[in-house]
Structures are given as structure tokens and as C-alpha cells.
């Protein structure tokens, strides 16, 4: 187990120093390395169990030694366990006579190489949106969007359980092109030894704005981001609203680029999180518009 952890830490450090810490080579290769090392060196009776136990210890050490945060470890843990268990079963099968499980090795290698050199299975560019019905006029919705938002707690279980960065306050107002917003989030607290909390914020600028009595469209470009840049590349927020009878339909769309691989794992997770964030923003401004 000690040798496997040592090899995993060396691999993590090497991948981090070469800019490959967000690729499948990190998130698939390292748990595979742990499983193979444990099985080939210790030859335990329950290889999969030992591989999973070693992975657990490795994840526990990743926070203090690699300066990772809680969110990263929670999100990555199922992938690490899944790869470790899969590789453990394959290696166990290979060691038995008559089994051809070795054919899985090329497949695992292909999966582990996603992200290296920019190669990806699923396109990195993505968007998630949320639509709400607001019991207010389009004029009131525009007024709410022009004002600094009043942030409340997350309602989405996914954002609450991670825990996702929480917006604390906002500075800036207006919907004219060039108007800005500075959103301050709760500080980042990593699990690194001797680490201190670091401030997080996001700056946005209005680059397009059309408002009428019947609706409107506003585009905010993200000009600086020290909050979500560790997980994804948030590009812009597009808000559209239009009258619908006695109410107003408002849609928030967040455009972003996925930065983590493998895409089949991190793609759906990031899309779901961004969708929940869009819903949170839509509900926040809907409440402000309805309050008048």
C-alpha cells in the first residue's frame, strides 16, 4: 500500500508540473496505477478491496499534500473508486489462466489519454440554462437586473452538498454596455497543510443590452474569475425576458468550456452544476423583480 501511494503521489506531482492535472491521465491513470501497484507487489487475496482501501487513503492525503479543496475530492472520488475497482478486477482476471481480460488494457489507455494534447470525446464548449416565470412586468425584471443582486442560500441539493462557492455580495449596477459587476464569493479553504483562506471573486461586463416594455436581452461577459476557474471556463451569461400574459418569462443561459477530462464523467457533472447555478440566478432576480 505504501509503495502504491508513493507512486501515486509522484505521478500526481509529475502531471501537475506538466499541466496535465485536469486530464484523464490524472483522474484515470492515477487510480489505475494504484490498483496495479497494489496487486502486482502485494498480491493480496482480495485485490480489489485493498486497491479501494489504498485509494481511500490516497484521497485522504490528497487534500493536505496536494492542496486540494473539498469540492474537488468529493467530485473526483467516485471516478477514482470506479477506475481502481475496474483495474483491480481486470488484473485479477489476467492472472487466472484462460482469461482474456487483457484486451481491456488498450481501452483503458485510450480513456486515460483524453485531454492530453487537447483531445476530447465530447465538445468542450457547452451551455446550461434555466427559465422561470416571474409575477412581475418586464419593466420590473429589467429594473431587478440593473440593480446589485441580493443573494440568498442555495436551494439546489447538488450545490448545497458539494459545497459550491457561495456569492456574498455584488458591487455595480446598470444595464448599459460597459456597466460592470463585481461578485464576491465566500473565501476558498483548501485542505493543504498550513493553507489559509483565499478570496474569490468574479467580474462581469455588459457587452450587449436591449430593453423594451415587452422584454429584453442582456449579455454579461466574464472578464475575470478567481472562483470557478479551477473547475471550468465560464465565458458569459445571457439573460432574456419577455412578457407572457400577466407574467414575464425570464431565461438565464451560462456559456462555458469544460476543462476537466474524461468528458463522459466531468461533462455531465459540470453541466448539471452550471444548470443549477443558472436556476439560482434566475430565481434570485425573479424574487427581486416580484418584490418591486
Automatic annotation (TrEMBL):
It comes from the Bacteria. Keywords: Membrane, Transmembrane, Transmembrane helix. The chain crosses the membrane at residues 24-40, 47-66, 72-94, 101-122. This is Polyketide cyclase / dehydrase and lipid transport. It comes from Mumia zhuanghuii.
Amino acid at each position: 500500500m505504501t509503495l502504491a501511494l508513493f507512486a501515486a503521489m509522484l505521478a500526481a506531482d509529475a502531471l501537475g508540473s506538466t499541466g496535465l492535472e485536469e486530464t484523464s491521465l490524472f483522474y484515470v491513470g492515477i487510480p489505475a496505477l494504484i490498483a496495479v501497484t497494489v496487486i502486482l507487489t502485494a498480491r493480496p487475496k482480495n485485490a480489489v478491496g485493498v486497491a479501494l482501501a489504498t485509494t481511500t487513503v490516497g484521497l485522504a492525503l490528497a487534500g493536505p499534500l496536494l492542496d486540494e479543496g473539498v469540492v474537488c475530492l468529493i467530485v473526483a472520488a467516485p471516478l477514482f473508486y470506479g477506475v481502481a475497482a475496474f483495474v483491480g478486477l481486470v488484473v485479477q482476471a489476467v492472472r487466472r489462466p484462460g482469461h482474456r481480460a487483457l484486451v481491456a488494457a488498450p481501452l483503458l489507455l485510450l480513456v486515460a489519454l483524453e485531454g492530453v494534447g487537447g483531445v476530447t470525446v465530447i465538445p468542450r464548449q457547452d451551455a446550461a440554462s434555466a427559465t422561470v416565470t416571474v409575477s412581475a412586468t418586464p419593466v420590473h425584471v429589467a429594473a431587478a437586473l440593473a440593480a446589485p443582486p441580493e443573494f440568498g442560500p442555495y436551494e439546489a441539493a447538488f450545490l448545497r452538498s458539494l459545497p459550491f462557492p457561495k456569492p456574498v455580495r455584488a458591487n455595480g449596477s446598470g444595464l448599459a454596455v460597459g456597466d460592470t459587476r463585481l461578485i464576491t464569493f465566500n473565501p476558498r479553504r483548501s485542505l493543504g497543510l498550513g493553507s489559509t483562506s483565499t478570496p474569490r471573486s468574479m467580474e462581469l461586463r455588459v457587452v450587449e443590452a436591449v430593453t423594451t416594455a415587452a422584454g429584453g436581452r442582456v449579455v454579461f461577459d466574464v472578464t475575470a474569475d478567481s472562483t470557478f476557474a479551477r473547475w471550468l471556463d465560464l465565458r458569459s451569461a445571457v439573460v432574456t425576458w419577455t412578457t407572457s400574459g400577466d407574467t414575464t418569462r425570464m431565461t438565464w443561459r451560462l456559456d462555458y468550456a469544460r476543462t476537466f477530462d474524461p468528458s463522459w464523467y466531468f461533462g455531465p457533472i459540470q453541466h448539471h452544476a452550471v444548470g443549477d447555478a443558472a436556476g439560482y440566478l434566475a430565481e434570485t432576480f425573479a424574487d427581486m423583480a416580484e418584490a418591486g
